[in-house]
Write a structure and sequence with these properties.
Structural class: alpha/beta
Number of helices: 17
Largest sheet: 7 strands, mixed
Number of strands: 7
Radius of gyration: 25 Å
Strand content: 15-25%
Distance between the termini: 62 Å
Helix content: 40-55%
Shape: globular
Oligomer: single chain
Amino acid sequence: MSAIETIPSEYGEWFISLKRQIRSAQQRAALAVNHELVQLYWNIGQSILLHKNRYGWGAKVIKRISEDLRREFPEIKGFSVRNLDYMCLFAGSWTHDEIAQAPLAQLPWYHLISLLSKLSTKDERLKYASLAVQYGWSRNVLVHHIELRTAERMGIAQNNFEVTLEQPQSDLARESLKDPYKLEFLGLSANVRERELERALVSRLSDFLLELGTGFAFVGKQVHLEVGGEDFYIDLLFYHIKLHCYVVIELKTTDFKPEHLGQLGFYVTAVDEQMRSAQDAPTIGLLLCKNKNRVVAEYALRDANRPIGISKYELTSAFSDEWKSSLPSVEDIERELSQGTESLADEYSED
């Protein structure tokens, strides 16, 4: 009678490696399928455009094309009249060589439709395409960021990172901050008090994290620090996973004053001394204020020796209710984020 075979000790590590290989192969296969489909849609759109220009094809012919393709390929559901129109728009917006390059070739078809339908210039579309690939945005999250003009607000907060942080950390930190931060989801009036603003942000933390951007992890509010036997409390403390550093956020419900940087710089120093580990990058401070004079802020930052950014926040939206109704809800976005990468099969089965 043979002895019972035991699982070898190296099996666990081997199986983890095998899973990585399989998932990597799945991702490469999905990208290959996506690339071929995008190329096909561009070719269809380009061919229709050529015949439109040469023979004057109109809506009746497009409808006939849709009917014939659906009858010939009943298993494929991407040949609606609307989708054929998007193919024409797609082919008219980018050359064949342009769509073969990253990041366009890495995005599913319905991401590309959102770029085409909601943005008017090539530069804008490429910027949001790059961000969608970089951060793995689902289509709903992409639309959310387009509507809130996230790309236009990234990297423009006033800061002193160039002189207080080494490369490439300084550039990464700069791109991680926005100006302004849109906090209209809080439903607060302009004369809110600091503690009330802080409580509201924590109570709507998922919304606030979405506005802060990818990489921010919440550590705590009113985080206690003891320095020289005295007690101090940080309004909000985060850790940025990609920057590998703590981010201290100080809230001011008044216009920016130069003395605000002294308090924030003190907190940044204290976190560096008491909480930062050897593996962490230098702590960053972010001052969120009601408004600011850019010249005053620039002067104040020149004397600050700790990495600090200054941004304002907005509590009311400048957009109409009709515009806001077109946005996905926070619940929709959270659902998209929890689902992870969308199935390519689902993407391509839509009309």
